[in-house]
Amino acid sequence: MISSILLAAGLSTRMGQPKALLDWGGEPLIRYQIRQLQEAGVDEVVVVLGYRADEIRRKLHGLTYRSVLNPVYQLGRAGSLRAGAKAVEREASAIVILNVDQPRPADLIRSVIEAHSSAASATRPACGDRHGHPVVVAGRLRGELVAATEDERGLRGVIEAHAGEIVDVACDERCLLDLNTPDDYEAAVAALAGDA
């Protein structure tokens, strides 16, 4: 079973509005991302919400997903990772971890999932010498995700603890896209329109 954690609890301070609700190809970004995870072959989507959670939930009507609330979302991403990891299926063989502000199409997600093997602790896309997202983590590391802290650098700390067991998958620049500011978003939408 392949589970996934979609992190969507943050304050979106630099964006000035909830990133989860940004328009992405005619629908809220979070709806797009849930659908892409499912199309990529994920069996379970756990969405971690925090800031403006009720407003975001209302945009997800009709989708199959589970949501959990991170009540300390202001304190950083590690709390959301812990909340999501606690909620995923305990028997999951792999856990796909993605931030809502990193739009990823199903084909990219699927390529990382398919490259992941039971021998790897994690598999991640790479473009040149830069590592991207999503990261697929072995289900056996769920306990480490549940214990992740900001001090130990959250997901990055878990991955670094298993540095010799990480598989990098060659990918294009889409694996690096990150929507942090209005300028990032406008550039990404313009590129998206150019691809259509």
Structure overview:
- With 196 residues, the protein is of the alpha/beta class.
- It has a single domain (2-195), classed as Alpha-Beta Complex (Spore Coat Polysaccharide Biosynthesis Protein SpsA, Chain A), CATH 3.90.550.
- Helix content is 33%, strand content 22%.
- The protein is globular and about 40 Å long.
- It starts with a strand and ends with a helix.
The CATH topology turns out to be Spore Coat Polysaccharide Biosynthesis Protein SpsA, Chain A
Query: How helical, in percent, are the residues?
Result: 25-40%
In terms of per-residue confidence, which ranges show pLDDT below 50 for 5 or more consecutive residues?
none
Domain count: the total is 1
The count of DSSP E runs of length 2 or more, i.e. the number of strands, is 10
Rg: 15 Å
CATH classification, class level: Alpha Beta
Number of helices: 7
Strand content of the residues, in percent? 15-25%
Question: Biggest β-sheet, characterized?
Answer: 8 strands, mixed
Distance between the termini: 33 Å
What string gives the helices and strands in order?
EEEHEHEHEHEEEHHEH
The SS-based structural class is: alpha/beta
Q: What's the shape?
A: globular
Mean pLDDT: 92
CATH architecture: Alpha-Beta Complex
Oligomer: single chain
CATH superfamily: Spore Coat Polysaccharide Biosynthesis Protein SpsA, Chain A
